[in-house]
Amino acid sequence: MNLSRLFLALLVLSLPLLAADKKQNKSSVRLYNPPTMAKPVSNYSQVAEVTGGKLVFIAGQVGLDPSGKLVSQDDFRAQTEQIFKNLKLAVEAAGGQMSDLVKVNYFVAESVDPSQYATVREIRDRYINTAAAPASTFVVVKRLARPEYLIEVEAVAAIK
């Protein structure tokens, strides 16, 4: 058997293995709230279960536009909107979409009036799949890295 026939035979024999490997790498995500746990007070999942695929960790995003300028020093809504634009750009750069988010962590400066917290959910719901909302944590902190930052959001995506 010459070398080219041997190579072809090995390639044909390995195709099922390659196909199986691709299937294993395919992401499966299950976002849910177990009936044994308290129901969330807003729209998020208690559990994000990921098998296979590619996990993408997105660093904390603040309200900086693409040129690196803060969109507004005192406008919580404007900063939050820019953050979700940044998250969308980050997920898309990794080959995914916003519905691939499985975990989102929010850090809000204590200087923000609690009446503005609902703004986060309102803006988030325009970007995510609300039928399968990612697991999330919302934390109020003394302050963020810079005093002009009112909110920072980090995320994890499971890309299929």
What general outline do the C-alpha atoms trace? globular
The tally of helices reads 3
Structural class: alpha+beta
CATH fold field value: 60s Ribosomal Protein L30, Chain: A
Q: Mean of residue pLDDT?
A: 86
Q: What summary fits the major beta sheet?
A: 4 strands, mixed
Tell me the strand order in the biggest sheet. 3-6-4-5
What is the strand content?
Answer: 25-35%
Give a short synopsis of this structure.
The protein has a single domain (26-159), classed as 60s Ribosomal Protein L30, Chain: A (2-Layer Sandwich). It is built from 3 helices and 6 strands.
Describe the protein's architecture and organization.
This protein is an alpha+beta fold. The chain has a single domain (about 25-160), classed as 2-Layer Sandwich (60s Ribosomal Protein L30, Chain: A). The chain is about 30% helix and about 25% strand. It contains three helices and six strands, in the order H-E-E-E-H-E-H-E-E. Strands 3-6-4-5 form a four-stranded mixed β-sheet. Strands 1-2 form a two-stranded antiparallel ribbon. Helix 3 links the parallel strand 4 and strand 5 (about 135-140). The radius of gyration is 21 Å and the shape is globular.
Which properties best describe this structure?
160 residues, alpha+beta, four-stranded mixed sheet, two-stranded antiparallel ribbon
Explain the layout of strands and helices:
Layout: H1 3-25, E1 28-32, E2 47-51, E3 54-61, H2 76-93, E4 101-109, H3 117-127, E5 135-141, E6 151-159
Parallel strand pairs: 4-5
Antiparallel strand pairs: 1-2, 3-6, 4-6
